[in-house]
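The data layer described in this paper is built around a simple, fixed record for each protein. We quote a single record here, exactly as it is kept in our systems:
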Amino acid sequence: IPFRELVRDIARRGEVRENPISMPLQRLVVEDICQRYLHSDDFLGQMRGSNGFVSELIARFREWKLACITPERLRESAFHLRESAESDVFVRKTEEFARLFGAYAHFLSANGLSDSEDRLNFATTRLQEGFMLPDNARHLLVDGYFRLNGAQIEFLKARDRKSTRLNSSHTVISYAVFC
């Protein structure tokens, strides 16, 4: 079965059900977060009203989620940057991104919502909890390792830990996804 269907099937199992946020609501929520959490003297504050800022911020949230970066990890990186960064600007910018990303994650959690990137994380959690592949499949043949993101790699690692054999012809990161 195609990878997206596999992930959707696994993610829908268990106690937690997906309640996806619509794209228009997502945009409104992120616009509101920018109004509440960005100030005019912030590094990103000057960009708050720029065309495309909210869309690009949503794209960053998506990229971070697919790279398995949480708001907490982003905050931690800002903390560690303080010790090594030559310029405070990058630290401030990272802290502001972490604050916005954290507010977005909190909104989703507090309202029982998820975005499209959360589905892969839900599926990974299900596999880690011992859920089986559809039809109790024992093998997962994957191909095309160059198209993986961090969340897909974690999904496959979770399945691999549950004794499903991953077949691949690559040795570096030998996890790949068929789409």
Remarks:
- Strands lie at 139-141, 165-167.
- The CA atoms of residues 81 and 90 lie 8 Å apart.
